[in-house]
Amino acid sequence: MPAKRELTMRQLRYMLRLHHDGVSARAIGRALGVARSTIQDNLRRAQASGIAWPLPAELTDDVLEQRLFARPGTQAGLRRCSEPDWGTLARELKRPGVNLMVLWEEYRQSEPDGYGYSRFCDLFREFERRLSPVMRQHHVAGDKVFVDYSGKRVAIVHPGTGVVHDAELFVGDRRDLFETIERPALKTLPAQDYEYAEWRLARVGLDYHVEVEGFFYSVPHTFIRAEVDVRIAARTVEVFHRGRRIAAHERRYGGHRHGTDPEHMPSSHRRYAEWTIERILHDAAAIGPSTAKLAALILETRPHPEQGYRACLGILRLARQYGPDRLEAACDRGLDIGARSYGSIQSILKHGLDRQRPQPIQGELLPDHPNIRGSRYYH
Question: Which of 155, 193, 222, 257 has its CA 20 to 30 A from that of 368?
Fold first, then answer.
């Protein structure tokens, strides 16, 4: 007698589906109104029998019950007719042109009272499952392309050279899958051509720009340090924050490395938007070479050149208060001590350090670096 079971076959199928979905045995037990140990026992039986969700469509409740609850050594299913040598049939099935229908017809010729075709196929698949584990494939519309070879080749003779080539024959026996699964899922073609794009995670810099392939694209300054998603296409770069697009730019492949939308700037930066690097350097050169050199260094050392506009324009405005000669002298001293900011130049002028004669440098010369100022910076 088979082992006693406490769940209906419908409940057993439901249990296998929930287990496949990752539901715990305790939760399955609560859903079915039985103890967790009952669920665990049935899951062990299923694992030992090689049964897992999704179940084959042809697996009946009778066969499922026999496989789960038959005593050890009991052959699965009801065997009331003479059976063929399943091992021999499995080897025969690998030969070209042989299928289960051919094998069943040969079996019925020798056993007229044998199994019908459906039961014959069930028993053969059951035998196959005991041979070795296989990967179960679930056909999803549009997911994979299946190509079947017939196993036979056709000789094709070239009419000019007489060379013979063997050609593969493709079998179109998946037409029913296309008609029943693929065709209902087909949709109309989109109005626009498909555009390949890559998505990347980025963080907005302090200069309210994100970097893409060595180029920088602005976003509204309120998103500084925010984590954003960047969609990179052949012609455009789009920036999204929590699913909402906050910036879109034409993609850059050359030229200026920064693409800045004036609307993304804070008001304090927007005032300088009409200025250009060339205009700033031109006005600095009109004061003197040291002023021009200092302005160029400030612009070069900023991550984003436009962020150096404010410092440069502030330095140029000092000429109105102190005169161009004193500003040139202050910039010369600033270059000497490594000063690179508006505040440093203003301090030099305020304390009259631009009027002091440079002190001779003794000992080993120090390298020119913005972080190395020397003693003259403090006098």
Answer: 257
173 CB-near residues (< 8 Å, 6+ apart): 148
Tell me the three state secondary structure of residue 34: coil
The single residue listed with the structure tokens 């003779």 is 157
pLDDT tens digits, one per residue of 351-362: 999 888 766 555
**Nearest-angstrom CA–CA distance, 307 and 310:** 7
Amino acid at 350: K
Closest CA to 100 of 78, 119, 75: 119
CB distance 167 to 153 below 8 Å? yes
> What are the CA-CA distances from residue 179 to residues 58, 141, 150, 224 (Å)?
21, 11, 21, 53
Choose among 302, 297, 355: nearest CA to 325: 355
Q: Any idea which residue has 């409740």 for tokens?
A: 61
* E strand or H helix at 202: strand 197-203
CB distance 228 to 246 below 8 Å: yes
Give the span between the Cα atoms of 44 and 109, in whole angstroms.
41
Helix, strand and coil in the chain, % to nearest 5: 45, 15, 40
Residue type at 67 in one-letter notation: R
Per-residue pLDDT tens digits for 77-87: 455 678 888 88
Looking at the chain, how many residues does it have? Answer: 379
Query: What DSSP element (H or E) covers 238?
Result: strand 236-241
Three-state secondary structure call for residue 259: strand
pTM score of the predicted model: 0.35
